[in-house]
Amino acid sequence: MNAPLPDVPDVRVVGLPQLTSGFDLVHRLDLSLHLKVHGPLEPMAGERLAELAEAVSLNGRGGAGFPFATKLRAVARSAIRRGVRPVVVVNGSEGEPACRKDTVLLCRAPHLVLDGALLAAEALGARGLVVAVTRDSTEASVREALAERGLSDRRGRGLRARVVRTPERMVSGEASAVIRAVNGGPPLPPGRRTRASDAGVGGAPTLLSNAETFAQLAVAARLGPHRYGHTGLTDEPGTLLLTVSGSAVRPAVLEVPSGVPLRYVLELCGAPPLAQGVLSGGYHGAWLDAATAHGAIVSRQALATAGGALGAGALLPLGPGTCPLGESLRVVNWLAAETAGQCGPCRLGLPAAAAGLAEVLGGGGATALEALRQVAQAVRGRGACKHPDGSVRFLQSALQAFTDDLAAHVLGGGCGRPTLGVLPLPAPGHPAHRVRGVPSGEKLAVDWTLCEGHGLCAGLVPQLIRMGPDGFPALADTAIPLHLRGNARRAVRRCPALALRLEGAPAEQEPPMGRALPRGR
């Protein structure tokens, strides 16, 4: 089973480095060496900076891909209209287990990220700069970089800068969750959609982008649009940072020009030559089948056209020796446990989807597959944040990419391959497991010799149990989130047939692989 990715994996480069310049010299570029490698950076007026971002087609590199120039102008307009100085936030909250590109930048080239953030802050006349991070390594590197520049959160300074620590969770890296955490609230999406450009940190207009976006801005400001456009595709110039793991024998973060063949990137990291498929964009992305992945190129538009996604820049090839749907179930279980617990599609729908996929893989047949598709369709487009949509996109793409394996599970006895666990997930005992919404270390089980199908348990904890088409409960094969542990224990106590029980799953054990429980009376 693959170990979780290290904080700072190996770094490789295709072509000439831009973001990773100097990485061959030292592990971390301090301010002095950063200036020797990249040179000084001149300030720019706000509209000129927006025009630069527009000229190089700079979109956000955190997943959504929103045009940076549009965001910059929206913050500037809001600040002028309200007469309030804005805030700039660097989102380094990389809580997805398959992503490390922002962590690499903040640990090895923090001043390049700060260059872009400070360039935007000066152009906007910002009063504050916040860098949100998830790991000890990134926090230490950013604090050291701020100190090297003489930046702090002390009053009386023109620009106050600080570091905010967020949990290493999928939902905590969402933009609204980061702003909520910076404001002192829980690091979860607020459940209502608000524009950070209107009211973000402290109610002020806020420019928020991820670390790579600000680093790209700093590179473009030094090179200018003409030289920047010499690398990569005409409509998506420059380079991209990618995290490659999965079945690759040499997981790494790569800097590549846009337009490079996907198969070449995977070969550099030792991916299997006959991969079953490639997950593009991370755990909120989409699977590409083997044939599509072989002919794809790496760019936002090209991957989207192929049915994939650039997303957060994660690429995970899957070797032939593991069950692709079993691998997907491990991730779906984790995504269900990552719920913010603030809306029905996330709190109820994702555990139901995990239970449905487990039922399909356990021999539930065509009826179970149809029920799973109905659950996924009901979740999509109804969440209070992006987590339900991203999770269902991952699930539905797995069903579409691995049709032969799906048919083997639905019509026969399965594909015959084990689930090796090559898609990285947080290590057992990881600090994230102590956060609300993640597994408690217990799960529900049914003694089928006693169960009489009363259905009381499904009413008490619908997030984890639903009634199957045969009139008996179907359980989500995942650990109970901490915030549902009380309801689960209540369901156990109230079961009239004494058929429901809690089973301990100590933190040092791996999460369940999605093997369905036997069904019966």
From TrEMBL:
Residues 56-217 form the NADH-ubiquinone oxidoreductase 51kDa subunit FMN-binding domain. It comes from the Bacteria. This is NADH-ubiquinone oxidoreductase-F iron-sulfur binding region domain-containing protein. Keywords: 4Fe-4S, Flavoprotein, FMN, Iron, Iron-sulfur, Metal-binding. InterPro entries: ComplexI_51kDa_subunit, Nuo51_FMN-bd, Nuo51_FMN-bd_sf, Nuop51_4Fe4S-bd, Nuop51_4Fe4S-bd_sf. Residues 330-409 form the NADH-ubiquinone oxidoreductase 51kDa subunit iron-sulphur binding domain. Belongs to the complex I 51 kDa subunit family. Its cofactor is FMN; [4Fe-4S] cluster. The keyword S-adenosyl-L-methionine does not apply. Pfam families: Complex1_51K (PF01512), Fer4_15 (PF13459), NADH_4Fe-4S (PF10589).
